Amino acid sequence: MTDQTSDVHVARAHRPPKAEFAVYFTIIFLAALPLAFIATLLSVLRNGDLNTKGPIARAWSQARIITPMIFSA
């Protein structure tokens, strides 16, 4: 005999509204930008190489990492 009570369908995760996500992304991006400029400057001074990731790319990637963490919590 099979147990029908254990076949519970789990609802998919709620997708955040795009406008709210964009607002949080923008705030985090702007907060990460000054630190990204410092990190890029230190990287260029340490390595003497301009082929490092730029400050906008660094801040963008940090915002792409952090913002979904806020919505998944």
Automatic annotation (TrEMBL):
Please give a single GO biological process term from the UniProt record. bacteriochlorophyll biosynthetic process
Task: Write out the transmembrane intervals.
Answer: 21-45
- What domain of life is recorded for the organism? Bacteria
Q: Which residues form the signal peptide?
A: none
Does this UniProt record's set of keywords contain Methyltransferase?
no
UniProt keyword annotation of Transmembrane present? yes
Alphabetically sorted, this entry's keywords are: Bacteriochlorophyll biosynthesis, Chlorophyll biosynthesis, Membrane, Photosynthesis, Transmembrane, Transmembrane helix
Q: What does this protein do?
A: Required for bacteriochlorophyll biosynthesis. Directly involved in the assembly of both the B875 and B800-850 pigment-protein complexes.
Q: Which family does it belong to?
A: Belongs to the pufQ family.
Name of the featured protein: Protein pufQ
